[in-house]
Amino acid sequence: MQAIEIDHDVLSRRATIVAALKKIVPGEGVIDAAIGRRAYESDAFTARRALPMVVVLPETVDQVRAVLAYCHENNVKVAPRGAGTSLSGGALPLEDGVLLSMMKFNRIKEIDFDDRIAVVEPGVTNLAITRAVEHRGFYYAPDPSSQIACSIGGNVAENSGGVHCLKYGLTTNNVLGVELVLMTGEIVRLGGRWLDQDGYDLLGLVVGSEGMLGVVTEVIVRILRAPETARALMIAFDSSEAAGACVADVIAAGIIPGGMEMMDRPAIAAVEDFVHAGYPREAEALLIVELDGPPVEVDHLVGLVEAIALKRGATQCRISTSNEERLLFWAGRKAAFPAVGRLSPDYLCMDGTIPRKQLPRVLAGMRDLSEKHGLRVANVFHAGDGNLHPLILYDANKPGELQAAEDFGADILRLCVEVGGVLTGEHGVGVEKRDLMPVMFNEVDLDHQIRVKCAFDAKHLLNPGKVFPQLRRCAELGKLHVHAGNLPFPDLPRF
């Protein structure tokens, strides 16, 4: 993986920078001691670590604005961070930059049940939104497995999904507006409290931009009425191919489940040991399919899905008879990542998306790749929309296994693109998939993406080293402006 060059000039000015930041964010808002910074050296992509130059925890929008304006003026890089649950290294800190933690922005500012919106700060956890509105029969639809911990600001950065994103959409489908502080310190608002916006869809551009365009300080989200009823089916198959074919058949029948998840045998065994949800250990693949809506409709759809599954050779089909049983089915899926952690000292959680019809081919391909690289893989994924989460098991203490795991993961993502899929569905590119971007995009594509970055952050100070496989300056894209014979940003190296 290509290393990002450290700016030693900035490091030589560290004491001055820290002193200036302490004036902007007084009290305990700046962490400069090494032992305190150590807590921020990585996110959930633990294969990569870096000790940030300094950590800043602002509490007000004005402090965020002032910090970014100071860093812009003094050419200091900034890496925004939420709860640190990113699985792609999106919140990986910079050794020569400021790590800007937004976790003190943790207030729910407004709930409007009539307009069905909530106005929240970015440090509010995903699950906290649902907890705040469920007493009135509402909830927030996107539900990543880490929803108890992950922040809504991080969800916006990575366009997070969850087990119910098939029917209710990802973060981008449930965010109506944001307040954004640009690297220059300028504050802008995109979107609002209404469903449809005029003009360019800049909000859609920001959601999923991985903290590279601005720092989100407020989010307006949709809240939905909880469905009248929900029932889940736990369906076992003797092959992953049969389970994948069942997924395709359900969608082809015009049925859009609230959630449709799949696990293979290694994941099933790990989860059952961990949660005791009643998963059939002998199954090679397990589907959890949830239908929600009016009771009559749900009962009808449950019968249709059961018939489709049996036609595809399901060896077991268990239908929830109570809400407690339905939640138990999901408890296993929600705990799949920590459960698999019991199988191996380390694992890489991959994230690629493929056309649903390619599920059997890709699952078979992953088995071949497992033999090629000599590492085990457990599969847990959002089957309904083809978002795969292969968990590659390895031991970082064994020489060469981390590299083998990364090579294995790269081959899986290449396979996803080969069959018509994409590199990421909800975890983002970060540093994990950065060097694979040319597999999916050509140089013209990447240059246009960087032009968007330049429009928001001309100096490339926000979260640099993420997403783009090569550092390209705005000047390299044919937009160098010379005024009175002077080049802009003369301290930047020219190529």
UniProtKB/TrEMBL annotation:
Keywords assigned by UniProt, alphabetized: FAD, Flavoprotein, Oxidoreductase
PROSITE patterns on file: FAD_PCMH (PS51387)
Cofactor section: FAD
Pfam families, per database record: FAD-oxidase_C, FAD_binding_4
Coiled coil feature spans: none
Molecular functions per Gene Ontology: FAD binding; oxidoreductase activity
Gene3D superfamilies assigned to the protein according to its UniProt record, in alphabetical order: 3.30.465.10, 3.30.70.2740, Vanillyl-alcohol Oxidase, Chain A, domain 4
Domain called FAD-binding PCMH-type: residue spans: 48-226
UniProt protein name: Glycolate oxidase
Organism from which the protein derives: Methylocapsa palsarum
